[in-house]
Structure formats: C-alpha cells, structure tokens
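Following the same procedure, sequence and fold were stored together, as reproduced here:

>
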Amino acid sequence: MADNLQRAQLARLAQGFALKSRLRLPPLVFFTDEERVPDPLPSIAKLPRGSMVVLRHRNGTKRRALATAVSPIARERRLLWLIADDPHLAAELRAVGVHFPEAKIALAAHWRAKRPRWLITCAAHSLASCVRAARARADAIVLAPVFPTHSHPGRAFLGPLRTRTVASVLDTPMYALGGISTVTAKRLRGARLCGLAAVGALAVAGGSR
C-alpha cells in the first residue's frame, strides 16, 4: 500500500520511461490482485488520468462484477482497462482489450486478427516468452517479476541488469512488473521500457490487506 506522494512519484517515474519511448501507451498500469487488494475500486479511482488497469481477478463472478464497476470509473478518469485471460468478457463489456498470461501467449495472434483495434498485452517471464509475445503481435509485453514481489514470494526474479538486456532486444513495448516501487523503479533507469506496472505500489488504504 502506498500513500498519495508515493503514487505521484511512481507516476512521474513511469512518465519518464514513456517520454523516452515516444510511444502512445499509458505509462502507468495497475494490476488487480484479489488476494492482496480485495477491493481495487478505491485504488483505481485514485489512478492518474490516462493510466491503465488490468483486471486480473481469477474468479469469474467477481471478475464480471468488477469489470461492470470499473467501466464508469474508467470513462470518468480516462483510464484504459483490459480484462486478463477472458477475451469474451472483454468483448461483451467493451473493454479496451485483453491481457494474456504467459501460458496463453499464442492466443494473442488469434485475437489480434479477430479484434484488430484491441489493445493486447501479454505477460512474459523470460526473453524466450517475450519473443513469442512479439511474434503473436502483442501491443505490449509485461515483463515480470523484475524484483521480489509479495504476489509470488520466493520466486526467482530478473533484476535490473537482465531486465535492461531483455528490453533492449525487442522493439515491442515493454512494462516492468513485480516489486515495483519508487525505490526499485529508479534502479531501472536506462532500461528501454514504455512504463511501469504495479499492484501494492498503487493500492490505497481500505482496499488492500
């Protein structure tokens, strides 16, 4: 959980990456997490205008309810929002696009052909997966985990050096996710990223635990 100052600082750091990339993608991405942030709506409502939200709730009923609630907030605050791993719900509720986990990167090519105007992102945990996402014509890759993260405690992470290396290989825009904070984001300076993605660093009091 972060306070207003920390979220503002993270937004400025994300904007710095976005300006250098010269791409028209949201610089800051909030990933929902039903374990860490059971009620993400207060956090979403506090996001800077022009940010992006990825609804990652795995429970189908909760995901639908959350998507329905997010839609008017997104319109009011000019947020882009994607639904993770549920392209049919994304189409039904008119989300901006869909986010695919690493195991389903291959689906990106299918939905790119079916929904050419969608914003499609893919998770990747290695250079090989990033290459697959690029070949599947993803608009952006979410590289994770870059640093140790509460979402996956004990899991191996890439670190800043490997993140810079992976991001330098491909032309596909890339976000860094996992352990992102105002402190760790500064260690990524110089990496060819289009922005930053986070869970806890963008969560507000009342919705997280």
